[in-house]
């Protein structure tokens, strides 16, 4: 058996290693946020911090290229989230409720494949397909490029929630004369509402933050905000680029936090519903 002293030493090493990993992951983000307030020299970012200022956030809002990239990212992320929720819901439902086990396994294999395939492969494959089929690049092709990963994420979120639903509620609905469509609308969808909202937020975030696929499918007339920020770093970035990056990080963090809160609320509601079903009279 491991003695108390060795146990404390192991815990200390584990905490130290965790701190090192967290610093390694978040130090670059913290640095970019701090330098968003750097005064710089003659409108250029400098390696040395020259003073505190918030003027670059206003400059970022006034930049036409940044505004156009932000609008494109918002619109593309909205349509990606909408397509992903519709298709991902159907896929997640089939992963759990399809009567054929073979079909469920095949769908699960395709779903997980979308998660592990590198975005570079997807971007190159889509660009080649659009070139060979003479499909012009635009908003629709950009949404089509962002959708595969988001669809798989939505499907897995819906699948996880469906596995926790109480089947007796649907059986009771059928006993009372409700058809499958009525049961889906009145019983299943209300319980899946928070999960659908969280999945939509995740899909929106993934699309808004995408750089790799967007870089392959962008044009001179249509470019997303992350692609613009990445391209501007190659020519001596302005401090307003760091300000835009800080705002983008804040928006992404907010969306992910909202998704996490909604998912937690959904899990608590599911557990509470299960408890109320077990208690006579429907109250815990």
Q: Kindly report how far apart the N and C termini lie.
A: 43 Å
- Beta-strand residue fraction: under 5%
User: What's the CATH topology name?
Assistant: MetI-like fold
Q: From the 3D coordinates, which CATH architecture would you assign?
A: Orthogonal Bundle
Structural class: mainly alpha
Low-confidence stretches: 272-284
Report the mean per-residue pLDDT as an integer.
80
Quick structural overview:
The chain has 284 residues and is mostly helical.
Could you explain how this protein is built, in words?
- This protein starts with a helix and ends in a 6-residue tail after the last helix.
- The chain contains eleven helices and no strands.
- Helix content is about 80%, strand content about 0%.
- It has about 280 residues and is mostly helical.
- It has helices spanning about 5-35, 55-60, 65-95, 100-115, 120-130, 140-160, 165-175, 180-210, 210-215, 225-230, 240-280.
- The protein has a single domain, classed as MetI-like (MetI-like fold).
